[in-house]
Structures are given as structure tokens and as C-alpha cells.
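Notes continue from the previous slide.

Worked example: a multi-chain complex. Inputs as given:
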Amino acid sequence: MTAPSRLAATFAASRAEHRSALVTYVMAGDPDLEESTRLARACIEGGADIVELGIPFSDPLADGPVIQRAAHRALRAGTRLGDVLGVAAALREESATPIVLMGYLNPILAMGEEAFFTACRDRGVDAVIIPDLLPEAAGALGELARRAGVGLVFMVATGTSPERRTRAIRAATAFVYLTAVDGVTGVRSELPTGITQAVTELRAAGDAPVVVGFGISRPGHVAALTGVADGVVVGSAIVDLIGGELDPLRRREAVRTLVAALRRSTVK
Amino acid sequence: MLQDDDGQITEAHSVSAGLDYPGVGPQLAYLRDQGRITVTYATDAEAVGAVAYLARTEGIIPALESAHAVVEARKLAASLGPDDIVLVNVSGRGDKDVGELARIAENSVAGSPS
């Protein structure tokens, strides 16, 4: 399966530079819609290759406390799924950086799957990560995404069986998301060994790009994985900064500085 | 699921931990939609009362979850004849709930006369 064109071009470009694409995550609507748009923009200015926007959900089962709190801040601020698509549209107007949404199934079902993927296409969203959608259960949803030209991402862990890994690769139309650690999103001081091996196995099992996330929080983590995976995701480390700094200017500057350091670490 | 128009899950409440959950399993939902089961409810106070009732009359302390079924059985039995048979599935034991029941008893003594 080929990735939607903006994503494919980004992976090809970073591969040509023998590095991984840097994927940075912010929660849409945290602390409010306008400010989260500016924070995503700060990520792009800092050198992010791909922007990932979180869709706030009341029961974010794959997320650790940092992103759970961000989701609750965004929901308290009144963020709805349509607003998240609005943030994507605002970024798309000013930048060609690929945009990936990450969110859970229930709000998508509440909006209507077809309306959601059509809106994704119209608002410039390249792909969607739905952690609680299994490749075996994607069915009609996968078909709607494909028709809209929006990529779907499926997750695998280092312990996923070869059979399920193959199903995830076949169903994925943007990239496969390998969770670097078992458990939920969140900052870890060290990454487990065996990620390189898992990426190599995924590459051998299909031609979907492989993006690694969960637990990757420090420039050293990025440096260890760059060139191994097609992309590396940093989420909680950025979201933690956002939650901990109340001054908007300092907050944006802190995000820009961290992203720039992470981006430098992708270059060997 | 208990949810709002945006698909955000809303808070549930029950005196029994096992029912304090905002969803219903697909099997039960299907059976209800098929019309093969009738789904009903009991209030916290009714369930607590049913624990005392079954303990006093049968020497069985039901779990707070199962006590909800005892409430419904008593309501149903009132409309049945002496030869009708009512079967109650006491699905769990109430010794796990004595702490919670003691807390409720203390509050009702310290608080309102009810």
C-alpha cells in the first residue's frame, strides 16, 4: 500500500537524508483551540517533518497521564471533533507539512465515519491513527478512508505475532505504528532494546513505512532510532511542556526549542 | 455506552462498584433489542435494603450488584400467585461489600433519619 502523497514524499525525503522523519504530537484544543494551533505551528517552525494532532477523548485508553490530562483540558475548553479538523485546516492553509490525527473510535462514530473522512480530505489531513481500531475490524471504515484518500494507521507492538503484524501492514494505508514500549504513551527515561530488530522484521514483512512512538521523549532516544525507522514520534514530552508553562510566549518558545533539539538529533 | 452527542463517555454512578460503569455488553444489548429480556433498574437505597432483606429472611448476604435483582424479584412477586416460581440469580457474595454497607449505615445514623 502506498502512503498518501505528502506523507510518502516526506518519508522519501528523510530516507534520502539517512534519517527518520520527526513526528511531533500536540493535543488539539489544549489549552484552547487557537493556542494549540500556534503550538502545532511552533512544532513546524522547530523543524517537525510531520505534525500529529490529538483528538481529545474522555477515555483515552492508549494514553498515559500526561496526554490524559491534556485531553481533559481540551474537553473542558469545549473542543469538539469538528474543531480539531478546523485546526488541521488552519495549518494546511499555511504549510505543506503532513498532518496526522490521532484519536479514538467513538467520537468518529458519533460524527459519522463518512462525514469524518470526507472532512479529513477537505481539511488537508493526510492520515488518521485510531488506537482502538483493530486491522481485523477496520472493514467498511477502511474502505471509506481509502475512497477519501486518507491514510489509516494501525499499531503493532514488539510482541505482536507475525500473523497479526502482517494483517496490520496489509491494512495500513499510511504507515505502521510500532509502539516502542509496552503500555501507554508517556515519558520514559530509557527505551527497551529490540526496537531495531522489530523495525527490521516489519520492513521485511511488507512495504509500509514504519513509525516508532510511545516513550520516545529525549533527543538521545531520537538519535538512537534515526535512520532505523521511517519516523519517530515524540508526544508526551511536548505535551508535558505545554501543560507546565502558563505563559503563552514562553510555552511556544519552549516547544520550538525542544522540537529543534529533537530535529537535530535525527541527523547522524 | 452512556455518551454525549460527540461520543464522549459520560460518568456513571452506582452504589455497587460492578454496576458503576458507563456501558452495557453487546450480548445483553442484543438480547434486549431482540425482546428476549427485559432490562430494569433499582435505586441505591433499594439495593441496600434488599441486602438486609435477604440476610434477614434467608441468611444470605448478596453482593450489592445481585441485590438489584432481589429488588426486582420482590416487585415482580407481588403480582404473582402463590404457585408461581421466581428464580433469582444471586451472582455474587456480599461479604466483599460489608465495608461499603457499614459506611452507608454509619452515614444514615449520623445524617438524615432515613
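Summary box: Chain A has a mean pLDDT of 95. Chain A has one domain: 5-265.
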